[in-house]
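Teaching assistant's notes for section 4

Start the section by putting this record on the projector. Ask students to predict, before seeing the second block, whether Molybdate transport system substrate-binding protein will look compact or extended. Collect guesses on the board.
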Amino acid sequence: MNFQRFFLFFSVFLAGCSKPSEKIVVATAANVQYVMKEIKTEFEKETGKEIDIVVGSSGKLTTQIREGAPFDVFVSADTKYPQEIFKNGGSADKPKIYALGALVLWSKNIPKPELNVDLLEDAKIKKIAIPNPETAPYGEAAIQVLKSKGLFEKIEKKLVFGESIAQTAQYITSGNVEAGFNALSIVLSPEMKDQGSYIILDSTDYKPIEQAAILLNHSADSPKKETSEQFYKFLYSKKAKAIFQKYGYK
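Reveal the predicted structure now:
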């Protein structure tokens, strides 16, 4: 056996003997993405273990989990999707609520004193951004607000649907729409601060946005099992709770 063949054989042998990765993947609802960046930093600092974050709408992430995406923990924008995963056998443990979210009306150019839900009926408001209510819980809450005010049918044709909270935020901050609905956590993030004006909407006009997380199934010998359980526990710690509160969650 020449040297090159021996080196190749030895490399393959080492690769086969290497320890499987303990790095976990956390599926994260778009409204929580900035919070999760800080929680990720604190968790990695405290444990020395790494995590990856995949961001999307809760509905789309649920579909990916159903189709076998290799996620370890799911941090949703509601309780419905994690509950669906639990009922379908995707987890041995029931989902737990980690925070209550808040809905805002946001505009890049309309001054805060003028900004209110009734203004959306005005002729000068041509387009209104909203997360897709089929897959994004904050979009569902926005529809509830419009219906409670008797405005939905009057402004339905003005609605522009974003795939997620993140895309809806892009529509608003780019000025492509006059106003839009979003999560308080997004407008409070460092990336979005001072990007226009917003008002926090009356929480009695929509169902409480209870946000839950769920620990997804792992085999008993999975190298990710311990880290996943550790991160899931950290998500409900005092340190994580303080970060959630910083972004307007209750």
